[in-house]
Amino acid sequence: MEIGQQRQALLRWYQTTARELPWRSHPEPWRVMVSEFMLQQTQVKTVLPRYEPFLERFPSPQAMVDAGEEAVISAWAGLGYYRRARALFAAASAVVDRHQGVVPNDLDALRALPGVGAYTSAAIASIGFGVAAAVVDGNVERVLARLRSMHEPVRKAAGRRAIQRLADEFLNPSDPGDHNQAMMELGARVCRPKRADCLICPLQTACSGQQDWAALPVLPERKKAVPKQVEQRLFLIDAHGHTVWRRRPADGLYSNLPDLLELAVGESAALYGEVTARKTTTQRLSHRELEIEALRIDVDGLPSGYHTGPVGAFLAEGPPTPVARLVRQLASDLEVG
């Protein structure tokens, strides 16, 4: 199968089997840009119920800038990795300042936006504007390594260059947006990390690595152990069903997000009252594992000097996802909205 036939086979498969996703049905540049930020390190099923409401609130870069960063962070609740929300706001601000509020169609101009790297710029340019720019993410990397039987380690500099070269060569210049989405779709649904459904793959007859798919791509060994960080939060509830929270520092993990009061190392929860319930959750971060335990304590009065209000108001502020999860579990008897 010649490369032109491979491109056409891939495109036919995509056009007849692709999932219906809102950023595909209306691939305007701003919508594509928002979807790419949301989909970084987050599953499609998590993004889907939040995508359209988010765009209704921020239908353009100018609307986002007018609303302010805090509004963006609040609307981002449930998606996690809040640095992406701040990066999106910074990128929208740059679009307004540098490009009169219009997402640029030039790769270099896109790359110059905060939070926009090689992958995101290629995705916005190809899907939003039809620019011939090949994207490379984990799905594309895996498909190409198997398709071309590439046994060079893909995460080393030479391997990254080789994968990008293969992506550039395979790109369909007549429909780069759908081609890129087809490659990502193929990796997500057919050519998966631990299962390759070669019999239904549109590129099966051209695939050089289908007999050795489990060994491809060649990836570095994962570190088995990561440092564990343990923290405790105080979920204080008064007679009105109100709680108390703080705003996290501007730097560090979950910067600027609302959060419950933290129990200092060596500090006893008994200083606040009797613990009536406790819940624990674990969050895997990039270089460590974070375990958070929240302690519910019913109190006569809430500490001063912090934000106070109904539990629902706290959740509406957009606390870190693991904290919100714990609060909902501990507040099952309260009206949280």
Name the descriptors:
14 helices; 337 residues; Endonuclease III, domain 1; alpha+beta; Nucleoside Triphosphate Pyrophosphohydrolase; 43% helix
Structure description:
This protein is α+β, with helices and mostly antiparallel strands. The chain has two domains: about 210 residues, Hypothetical protein, domain 2 (Endonuclease III, domain 1); about 100 residues, Nucleoside Triphosphate Pyrophosphohydrolase (Alpha-Beta Complex). It has 14 helices and six strands. It has a six-stranded mixed β-sheet with strand order 4-5-1-3-2-6. The longest helix is centred in the first third of the chain and has 17 residues. The model has no long low-confidence stretch (mean pLDDT about 95).
Entry summary:
Helices cover 43% and strands 13% of the residues. The protein is α+β, with helices and mostly antiparallel strands and 337 residues long.
Q: Which sheet architecture does the biggest sheet show?
A: 6 strands, mixed
Structural class: alpha+beta
The CATH topology annotation of the largest domain reads as Endonuclease III, domain 1
Strand order of the largest sheet: 4-5-1-3-2-6
Secondary-structure element series: HHHHHHHHHHHHEEEEEEHH
CATH architectural category of the largest domain: Orthogonal Bundle
Low-confidence stretches: none
Strand content: 5-15%
What is the secondary structure topology, with strand pairs?
Elements (H helix, E strand, L loop, with lengths): L2 H15 L4 H4 L3 H11 L4 H14 L3 H7 L1 H7 L7 H17 L7 H5 L6 H12 L8 H10 L9 H14 L5 H14 L38 E10 L4 E6 L10 E5 L12 E10 L4 E10 L8 E4 H6 L4 H10 L7
Parallel strand pairs: 1-5
Antiparallel strand pairs: 1-3, 2-3, 2-6, 4-5
Helix pairs in contact: 1-12, 3-4, 3-9, 5-7, 9-12, 10-12
